[in-house]
Amino acid sequence: MTEFFHSCTTNERKREIEELLNNFAQQTGAWRHCLFFLSHTQNEYVMMYSLTVFENLVNRMWIGVASQDKMEIRSCLPKLLLTQHKSVPYFIRNKLCKVIVDIGRQDWPMFYHDFFTNTLQLIQTPALASLGLIMLKTTSEELACPREDLSVARKDELRKLLMEQVPTVLGLLTGILETYWDKHSITASTPPPSPTSGESCDQYSKLLCQPMASLDSDSHQLCCLVLECLAHLFSWIPLSTSITPTLLASIFHFARFGCDLRTKAKTFIANSSSSNGQHHHPITTSNGDGRTGHPAEMTKAERARLGVLAMTCVNELVSKNCVPMDFEEYLLRMFQQTFFLLQRLTRENNAHTVKTRLQELDESYLEKFTDFLRLFVSVHLRRIESSPQFPIVEFLALLFKYTFNQPTHEGYFACLDIWSIFLDYLTTKIKSRLADRESVLNRYKDALVLLLREVLNRIQFRYNQAQLEELDDETLDDDQQTEWQKYLRQSLEVVAKVMELLPSHAFTTLFPVLQENLDVYMGLQQFIVTTGTSRRLNISAENDCRRLHCSLRDLSSQLQAVGRLAEHFIGEIFAARFNDALAVVERLVEVTCYGSQTSLYDLETAVPSVLKPDLIDVHAQALAALQAYSHWLAQFYSEVHGQSQSQFINLITSAIDACSPLITAKVPEKLLLSACHLMVSLTSTVRPVFLVTLPAVRNIFNLITDNQARRLPQEAHMLVCRALSNTLLLPWPNLPESEQQWQSRSSNHASLLAALTREYRILRGTVNVTPPQPDNGQYLKLVIQQTLPVLRDIVDSISGESTKSRQICYQSLQESVQVSLSLFPVFIQQPDVTDEMLAFFLTLFQALRVQMGVAFTGQIIHTFLSMFTREQLAASILQEGSAGCRVVQKFLKILQVVVQEPGQAFKPFLPSILSLCMEQVYPVVAERSSPDVKAEMFELLYQILHQNWRYFFKTSVLTTVQKGASEDVMENEAQFTAAMQAFGQSFLQSDIHIFKQNVSYLESLNSKHKLYHRKLFRTSMLFHFINVLLQVLLHKSHDLLQEEITLAIYNMASVDFDTFYSAFMPEFLNGCQGVDTNQRAVLARNFKLERDLPSFTQSVQRLVNDLRYYRLCNSSLPTGTIKL
Importin N-terminal domain: which residues (predicted)? Predict the structure, then answer.
């Protein structure tokens, strides 16, 4: 063993040694040698190896061990544990415990009747209590939730046996905790006064008011073990009266260790006749001053560990949602006790503020406590809230203190989540109780007001600069947001939820603060100094710059808050809150116009690296906030009459005036994109009829269509083109069809698109059918990659609109579509260009296939089918993740759209699409992973079958019902069979996503077309599918999909349960390798003839578990073993 683990041993030699050791372990009677080694060696490697031999023997070969040998092992190993548990390393001791527990798992109570009583006796023997607790914890881990190396019947039996022992075990553990607490606490005749006057300090709280116990290190170790045992027991014991008030009180005593800061340690003389039967020798205190007679005081880490373990127990209980009636009272007591702990955590005194107190506590204790609060609010608040014994409002006040004194950002986020859960609960409650909503709201109003104010203060640099500067605003996380953005977003979500409950209050809190910072921003104009061509901001004192920086950062956050609240001004409450919303929108329009006119983003500043980004950000956020009110503007537009009309026109005109100067390539991109997005929202959501006539919009038209002008960055260019196209294509609200001016809008749209595609359309003449030359090729590529995304975006944006809009769009595009089709064959060898073209065609098919007409669509499909040869497809698919691969995916997506089209128009293409799918794509992907192409190919197959069922099965549903399913008239049988084989083949592969997708496709075909009932499927495929799915469950290769697989097996079996039970199951069991005749009979007997889904599911799970268990046992036994 030492040679094996020596650093100089070669891998070759290690393999030799490993083989020797494995052969040794397989020998009958090897365990006797191992028992000898365990008793006589000091070498840890040898001990570990010997225990592994025992573990293997017990878990895999026990069934073949002679009963005399079993008895010997059952008696020797516990003796060994008792003699050696103190001298061997802890991991050897724990492994030995596990082997003994494994024997109990197999033999208790029939052959090892004193297994559990031995453990209980150990716990009750003071000198061996910790060993007993380790045995108990291991028993809980291995017997309550055993792995699959046991039969289901045995698992159920063990669970039942353990449940019978629960009251005894819990009683014992309670006793230990109480004893140690009482023995070590400093008894006080009267509890100290309660922390807050008027606090209900009932008997449970009185228990908690006692001074803290002071444990020595042995006692600490033992109490930790008890709490670890309890935490594991609570993970599987249901809530019941076995969990007594005394036990709960004891756990809460220990939970206090996490939240009490010790300033001066109290010491006491240990009682010589202590309960664990060991005489204490004088122990030196931890400060090492040499005095004797005092036990060592627990360290801060040890105290925290006790607190963390106790809170883990509490959280295991609180996480259970199923609360029996007789346990509800206990639950209430638990919450009262936690309320007391929360009071202690948030108590202020001369020595500590709440924040310093929380800072000094152990981080994991605080995490556990926050977890508790989250579970309390999310799972139990509805039970407890109405109870007069629980002071809910005071609880919220303490939660408030706890939240806003968290020492870390993570802690603060976790607490904000708790408030979000509470606010959701309150909103739901108020919506469901319209009668007394006011009284419910009034009860919590003060808490909500405080919460809103504090959360708003927390996001302001003015109040919180030091903490906010620490947040990273550069690095993006998995959700593509920086730490600062996440902080702001979570805070604003809470603000928005309070706004929903207290709209007018939230508005009056936020708006004045916004006004204040806006005044600073609007006042910057007076500090602008122009010299020659440069303009600078004449603020240079360091203090002024810092104040300006804080004010601008806060303004930016407040603008986001105002934008986030936009949804609370629309719909039914539009009229009631109209004036507030109008004030906001007018102010936002004023700010955006001011920013664009004074071009603050262009100024030179004293600290350009800080102030310039601030100024750009405020301007961009103001535009984004205004964009958020586009739905309000749309509602205003549909409800305005008379005098308000000029108000509306002014708002829109000013908003466009604010955007227009920013739409140029010279403006920073962040600002340019905000302006473009605002334009898009105004044109798509508000759609004012007068937009086209505004001079600012005309200017933008000219800029985009002028070839000489400097082109905008691609994203901005696309957005502006979409906005301009929207103004011409989208129907105007509140106007009849006759006043929509379609004719002039149509010709304007045609000229817009003609200008946008000028260079692209010229390509048709310049490109021959031969591939372009390299130098010219780059230019052609560039034109294609600049033009097609813009066209695709325009088509995409009207895909859900009226027929008229789509008609005009297609007319304007017609020539470009023809050009694309003629260019397609030229670029077929350049996947990145083909990818762009197919993306365009896919969007056309999805949005405009009716407008394109059958003849032209047919021409396109025909071109594609002839271009994608088998070689072409194979070459593309083999380069996984490449542009070529994406081309094939898009091509299959286009075909999906085609086969879903109702009516007869595209039916002639079905045979060639099917043959492309089954004869060209499938053979290439069948044996490879190619997940992306495979997913699209199977979706295409599914859509072909689902949308074109009559292509395979001529009979109508009616005749099937009248004459029975045996009358199926099939056509194209070979193709149907090939498709089903492809589905079946996919279940033999490891890709879990394809597996899940395909199971759901088969289930869908069954529910819509009775697939499993069809004669061909029933007679020649059904049992093959059930067999494959059962094998997958047995191999545990797709465990995440157990439910879906079992449901599919049930639906297939339910087509003909009689045949399933009488023919399939016996045949399946006979074909099972690795089990003997007797075991097959047991498996068959246990698979009950059930016809409802829950019972059937249980039978399948039992079959899979027991079959795996038998195989495991049989495979581990030496040949010729007699099983007993």
Answer: 17-83
What token pair was written down for 246? 């005394």
54-90 burial, b at 16+ Cβ within 10 Å, e below that, comes to bebbbbbbbebbeeeebeebbeebbebbeeebeebee
- The number of angstroms, rounded, from the C-alpha of 233 to the middle of its chain's C-alpha atoms is 28
The radius of gyration of the chain's CA atoms, rounded to the nearest angstrom, is 38
Q: In angstroms, rounded to a whole number, what is the distance separating the alpha carbons of residues 418 and 422?
A: 6
d(CA 654, CA 652): 5
Q: Do 454 and 404 contact (CB within 8 A), yes or no?
A: yes
Contact 457, 439 (CB under 8 A): no
pTM for this one?
0.82
Query: Residue 322 corresponds to which tokens in the numbers above?
Result: 């199923």
In the chain, the N- to C-terminal Cα span, in Å, equals: 34
Tokens of 852: 């394109």
**Contact (CB, 8 A) for 579 and 503:** no
C-alpha 107/C-alpha 105 separation (Å) is: 6
Q: Give, for 857, the enclosing helix (H) or strand (E).
A: helix 854-867
Tell me, what amino acid is at 743?
Answer: Q
**Which CA distances in Å does 800 have to 449, 556, 685, 797, 810?**
43, 35, 13, 8, 14
Q: Which residues of the chain have pLDDT under 70?
A: 183-213, 261-297, 350-351, 641-643, 708, 767-776, 880-881, 955-968, 1117-1124
Of 374, 383, 364, whose CA–CA distance to 419 is shortest?
374
pLDDT of residue 175: 92
Are residues 788 and 837 in contact, defined by beta-carbon separation less than 8 angstroms? yes
Residue 297, pLDDT score: 65
Cα distance between residue 586 and residue 626, in whole Å: 9
For residues 483 and 45, give the distance between their C-alpha atoms in angstroms, rounded to a whole number.
48
Token pair of 189 as six digits: 């005749």
Neighbour tally for 359: CB within 10 Å: 15
At 913-936, the pLDDT tens digits run: 998 889 888 888 887 777 888 999
Segment holding 534, helix H or strand E: strand 534-537
Listing DSSP states for 380-439 in one string gives IHHHHTT-TTS-HHHHHHHHHHHHTT-SSHHHHHHHHHHHHHHHHHHHHHHHH--TTHHH
Nearest to 1073 by CA among 1033, 1105, 1031: 1031
Distance CA 560, CA 580 (A): 17
- pLDDT value, residue 688: 93
**In contact, 690 and 649? CB cutoff 8 Å:** yes
User: What is the rounded distance in angstroms from the CA atom of residue 411 to the CA atom of residue 107?
Assistant: 48
How far is residue 858's CA from residue 960's CA, in Å, rounded to a whole number?
34
- Residue 923 CA to residue 701 CA, distance in Å, equals 51
pLDDT at residue 751, as a whole number: 93
CB 65 within 8 A of CB 57: yes
Q: Which residues of 137-163 are buried (b: 16+ CB within 10 A; e: fewer)?
A: bbbbebbbeeeebbbbeebeebeeebe
Calculate ∠ Cα 366-367-369, nearest 5°.
60
> Taking Cα atoms as reference points, which of 353, 436, 447, 432 lies closest to residue 396?
447
User: What span, in angstroms and rounded, lies between the C-alpha atoms of 658 and 324?
Assistant: 63
Cis bond before residue 109 (omega within 30° of 0): yes
- Token pair, residue 21, equals 């050791």
Residue 523: per-residue pLDDT: 92
For tokens 């079993």, the residue is: 70
* Neighbouring residues of 833: CB distance < 8 A, sequence distance ≥ 6: 781, 784, 785, 827
Secondary structure string (H, E, C) spanning 291-353: CCCCCCCCCHHHHHHHHHHHHHHHHHHHCCCCCCHHHHHHHHHHHHHHHHHHHHHCCCCCCCC
- What does DSSP assign to residue 289? -
DSSP 738: G
